[in-house]
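User: Run a structure prediction on this.
Assistant: Running it now.
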Amino acid sequence: MYFDGADDSISVSNTIANVQSVSFWEYSNSNSGNYLRLTSSVSVSAASGTVSGNNFSSPTVYVNGVANGKVKAFQWNHIIITTDTGISSNGIKFGVLGAITYFAGFLDDIRLYNYALSPCRHIPFR
C-alpha cells in the first residue's frame, strides 16, 4: 500500500481480539513514520529510526530481525512488535496516527497475531 503523506489512510472497522504481535514491512525516504493505530491509544510509529509500540504493555520490538534495531530510509524494513498482554483492536487505521499525522511511503504484508511471535519467527526473509 502506498501512502502519500498528505491524506492517505486505510480504516478497518472490525474488532480483532487479543492481538499480541504486529508484523509488517515499511519503505520510505525517512527513518521516522506513523505506521498504524490499533486503538485510539495503541499505535506503532518510528522516530529517528527507533520503532515504538506506543501504549503496548512491555513491547519487544524487532527491526530486520534485530531486537531494538533501527529503521533505515530508502530500504525495506521488517518490523515486529510483540507483547504478552492481548490488545482488543478496534478502529484500526493504517498510514495515520491521530487525525493529521500521515505516513509517507509503503506498508506491506501487515499481519496481526493473537499470540506473541517466538524469537525464531523474528528473522525476515531476505
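The radius of gyration is 13 Å.
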